[in-house]
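re the bet — no i am not wrong, look at it urself. input seq straight from the record:
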Amino acid sequence: MFDIKAHLKTLPDSPGVYLMKDKYTNVIYVGKAISLKNRVRQYFQSSKNHADKVKSMVKNISSFEYIMTDSELEALILENNLIKKYKPKYNILLRDDKTYPYIKVTLNEEYPRVIKTRRVLKDGAKYFGPYSNVSAVNDTLEVIRNTYAIRTCNIDIKKAIRSNMRPCLNYHIKQCIGPCTGRVKRAEYMELIDEIILFLSGKEEILVETLTKKMEEYSKNMMFEEAAEYRDKINSVTELMQKQKITNTQSDLDQDVIAMANNEDEACVQIFFIRNGKLSGRENYMLEGVKGSNRSAILSSFIKQFYMTQEYIPKELIVEENFEEQEIVEEMLSYKKGKKVLIKIPQRGEKRALIMMVRKNAEEYLEKFDDVKRKKYEKSLGSLEELRKLLSIEKPLVRIESYDISNIQGVDSVGTMVVYTNGVKDKKEYRRFKIKTVDGPNDYASMQEIIDRRLKHDKLPDLILLDGGRGQVSAVREILNNNGEDIPLWGMCKDSKHNTKGLINEVDSIELDKTSNLYRFVASIQEEVHRYSISFHRSLRDKKMTKSMLDDVPGVGPKKKKALIQKFKDVDNIKKATKEELMEVDGITLKIAESIEKHLKKER
């Protein structure tokens, strides 16, 4: 058994990361410390000054372990990696873990390409981004490819020239000037790339000015076709410029502007991505586990987790307020970027106004998120709580299991179980049962069999709902009693129109209000278990029909049978097919088609 007091005495006075674990050895919290000895001991001293969240966590700590590091920076990086790995219950967690697209100019190639990528490598290429809006990337690439006839292929140009390879379609339709032909000088090609880099660097005005001079020059020399090409380039660049919002005309730095809105249970952080003085995109991020944490801790957790997963870090972070571990976070960002990164908290002026705009956007998003969450709660967890009170069940309804039996005149009886965890379908927990011990159309005995088999396994439900009435409930109650289980049990009964009416057990019946969220919740469970049961029975029936009708046809083996089912979907369609249609299936000759037709007619 882990002796916490004894292990506290062995803690080293050095930087590192500590992991708190519960009685099941699950990691419930990951933290870092300049001194492991001092930091970890604080949790187990007087709890008078502890926040409620810390008090709750300490009650659940059964053991801990630690990892020493050489510096606080190493500890910070390791802490974030472990939080990402374990997603501990008591840590503030960033829900979003997406990567963003960049535009890459492959300057590491002799004849560069312009492509979309999600990875930033130290490979000599030039990267622009990140862009939070993928459509903006696609629009930009489309403008570039329509304006500049550069290559999009990844072939080896030198090899293509040596082997006298035929140029592709892009060359013939003038979408590529064809460096693979050997007739294009690199200097000529790089002029196009330089213009593209100018455009992507946010210096479109300079590019338009350059293109305008070239257009006028061609026009003066009566080269109107070439002048028209440059006119079209100018129009394309100008159109895209108008779509972009200039944020800060005084700076061409790459900056992320970060602000946060929070309430007791959630926090929303919004980032405006500014590249070369222009807004390239914005994104919202929700954090969970913030209850009991102050704004400083939430903001610190977000910045650490977010930028540890990002390929690109800008020159500046503009943040609305100071936050925990700001200096070491700045050091971490600089270490990852390989250059100095500055964290600034503007108090006045244009940047402060921008921060307030970002904050306002975060507040609006959080308000909408809370409204959606509230409606979702009313439909699921709210309905669960209402159901629990209605049925006088003491325990929370974490796991609900619902069962149904399906057969046609007693043939091929099957049973199914669907599971709802915290009010949401948990499809990985669904189960199917083939009835083994019951002959004939006996739904009660069939239900008894599958419940008896189910009770042999762990993780029993907090409530069982049957797609059936009082007779089904009585039959299952007998099995529960025989197994010594006292699980709340109700049937979902239907009205004369076969719609959900209410709930029923051995002594009580409850009619549900059809306008309520609770009714919709119960009806959705009944519909889901019935759908799952019918689909299982149908699949077995189709397999059986397929086996009995096709497996005995001379010349039809497993491959041909599979091909027939893939084309015609089921045996009924195969029956209706003509010989000519059957022969469209790979391997089906006229002789085999006639054999199939003859055999199925006999079966019919």
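see?? DSSP finds 21 helices and 20 strands in the chain. told u. also Confidence is low (pLDDT under 50) at residues 244-249. so pay up
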